[in-house]
Design brief:
monooxygenase, iron, EC 1.14.99.60, mitochondrion inner membrane, 318 residues
Length: 318
């Protein structure tokens, strides 16, 4: 210990005598210290994985942004912090100021979008309720009720005349060469005129035709041909049942149009009255050609009537 103490004393005395040597040692020590990496940096480099650097940068930006937003606005840094002579520090401050402006604009946009979301729900609810109340009020007007009544009448009558046309087409395919062929042909021609008239009225009154016309096409032809195969009496029984239902249906429609407005519905009233009389004439013609003599006449006519009532109910809605 004495030798070491004596050697240390001699070295200190030499440094006092040679100041340049002491300055060189300090510079050499500082250079080694600058070249040597810090312990935290060495651990970070050893533990850093691919992609870690970018995440650390994003994390640092987020911490910097949060600290800036919570403490001092960056636009005041140039007044608070003394500007250094190096360009590096001034460029960093400018970059932070630009970043703060971007964050503030984004925050304003988010607040504006939140405001829109908050007002969208009550505004949409108000529009829906207002539209519903306006629609309900319009549906209670006489013009809407008349329009709806005319649309339903024309749709179901067009479907009924279309089905009657197909029934007579099926009967003519089987009984066209018999003694009742001419009678069926006469009634079929009148049904064709009825169908043509309703096809003219549909676009005039802007009424929608039935969506079940393909079904009425097949069902009508099958009914007409099937009853004709059972004999001319069964074919006439089918005519009696169908025309009775159609004539009663025309009478109900005439009463509805008169209750609505007989003046504004005059055209439809005249047409329906004429067609009702034609259907009643077909009914009487069927009775005159031995329709009651058909086998199981009562059950046959009742079954056909039930089918006609179901077809009318569907045609009024579809």
């Amino acid at each position: 210990m004495e030798k070491q103490t004596a050697a240390g004393v001699r070295d200190r005395e030499k440094r006092k005598l040679d100041p340049n040597r002491e300055k060189a040692c300090k510079e050499k020590h500082n250079l080694r210290k600058a070249r040597r990496p810090k312990i935290s940096e060495r651990n970070t480099k050893q533990q850093q994985m691919p992609g870690m650097k970018e995440r650390n940068c994003d994390k640092a930006r987020g911490e910097r942004r949060s600290s800036v937003n919570s403490k001092v606005p960056l636009t005041l840094l140039s007044e608070i912090l003394p500007l250094s002579s190096s360009n590096k520090q001034s460029s960093e401050i400018e970059a932070l100021i630009l970043e703060e402006e971007l964050v503030s604009s984004t925050t304003w946009y988010l607040r504006y979008s939140d405001l829109i979301k908050m007002t969208a729900i009550p505004l949409t609810t108000f529009c829906v309720l207002r539209r519903g109340l306006a629609t309900k009020a319009f549906q209670e007007t006489s013009s809407y009720k008349r329009r709806n009544l005319q649309d339903k009448i024309l749709r179901v009558d067009h479907a009924g005349e279309f089905g009657a046309d197909r029934i007579y087409a099926g009967q003519m395919a089987v009984l066209g060469q018999t003694n009742v062929g001419s009678v069926i042909k006469e009634m079929w021609d009148q049904e064709k005129d009825h169908l043509k008239k309703f096809e003219e009225l549909l676009p005039k009154y802007r009424a929608r035709p039935s969506m079940l016309l393909p079904i009425w096409n097949v069902a009508g032809f099958v009914l007409g041909a099937g009853t004709a195969l059972l004999g001319k009496e069964s074919a006439m029984a089918c005519t009696v049942a169908v025309e009775e239902v159609i004539a009663d249906h025309y009478n109900r429609q005439i009463r509805d149009l008169i209750a609505d407005d007989p003046v504004k519905n005059k055209e439809l009233l005249d047409i329906l009255k004429k067609f009702r009389d034609d259907e009643q004439h077909h009914h009487d013609t069927g009775l005159a050609h031995d329709a009651p003599k058909a086998p199981f006449y009562k059950y046959l006519t009742q079954t056909i009537k039930v089918g006609c009532f179901g077809a009318i109910w569907l045609a009024e809605r579809l």
